[in-house]
Design goal:
homodimer, alpha+beta
Chain lengths: 201, 201
């Protein structure tokens, strides 16, 4: 089995949301699995002085708000910019890391489900009770997931993962690593696919 | 005849260079011509506080230098990052505006030729004599082109075009406008093509 495709992301990133809907199928076409790597863009942005796209100067923010929608339509996924955007996603990320222990084969499903909920209607993406309900709806232990939000172990694990992202030079999301090749952005998926198909180019 | 596809660019932009190689063929597949719109990113960047990609923090600059090359390979065009990069391109832009009067049907050829020269080997992209030689090699009036570099008329025309870019909310290159829909980046060409094919999406 070849190394999994690493998918580094923040649950609040619209472009990561779009890419997350298809990355497992893309990887599977080339005999690869996906290793989901939640991180916090807030931590990563500090290194380069970046800021959320909707908080850039008006002409940039306006363009991105329009491009989120258009890129979602192009990919065939629903998109409504949430009223509360961006938000911190540490609890969602901790639940994702908890899933890595509790039911690793369900992570992709969880990521797609909660990001779709957040980006297509009101959803309390980072609320522990809401997350517990999402996990319970998957037939898993919602209470344990909610507990993970306050668990020092998962707090540390998320912190360590953000530090690892910084060490790897990651400065945005989604960030896709194939073997040691880094691709930034939903718009690099065609290159990712070509790379997987050709073994590099 | 439908309105031409507007291609706003700076001659020094690597992603504009890559997109410029195929934009006329792309537009032609949908019965459109290309209206070439040279501008200076230096003027446009002032509005949003942007900076050249290679002058960003090291992890970003390194990523982009790598991505220029990879995106060029992906598109099948040669690419070497010039030793002098980025440079001001006001003379090249003025010659381009002069061509709009002298031989408008040759602009695409000029853009592709001089960007390929700059991005595949040493070339004095913004030097009036070098530009004159490029124009002469096209069978056109090299001396007149060189004179355009110092001509108040073309200086004003370029300034006006940069101001128009700012009014349109353009903050990067390449910037492609189909009817009134704006697409930023070489990586949006698939969306541009889909938009042209579908009449919007």
């Amino acid at each position: 089995m070849k190394a999994p495709v690493e998918f580094w992301f923040d649950f609040v990133s619209p472009y990561a949301y779009i890419a997350a809907q298809s990355i497992e199928q893309l990887a599977a076409r080339h005999g690869r699995e996906v290793s989901w790597k939640p991180m916090l863009l807030g931590a990563v942005f500090k290194v380069t002085g970046s800021s959320p796209l909707t908080m850039r100067p008006p002409q940039m923010a306006d363009y991105f708000k329009h491009d989120f929608l258009r890129s979602a339509r192009y990919a065939g996924v629903p998109f409504v910019l949430p009223e509360l955007f961006p938000i911190a996603t540490q609890n969602t990320s901790r639940v994702c890391l908890w899933l890595q222990d509790a039911a690793p084969q369900r992570i992709g499903e969880f990521v797609r489900q909660v990001t779709r909920a957040y980006f297509s209607g009101p959803a309390a993406l980072n609320d522990a009770d809401w997350l517990a309900a999402q996990i319970a709806a998957m037939g898993l232990d919602g209470a344990a997931a909610a507990a993970a939000c306050e668990d020092t172990h998962y707090k540390q694990a998320l912190k360590a993962q953000c530090e690892q992202a910084i060490v790897k030079g990651i400065f945005g999301a989604p960030w896709i690593i194939v073997d040691s090749e880094s691709f930034w952005g939903n718009d690099r998926l065609p290159q990712v696919e070509h790379w997987l198909a050709q073994g590099g180019f």
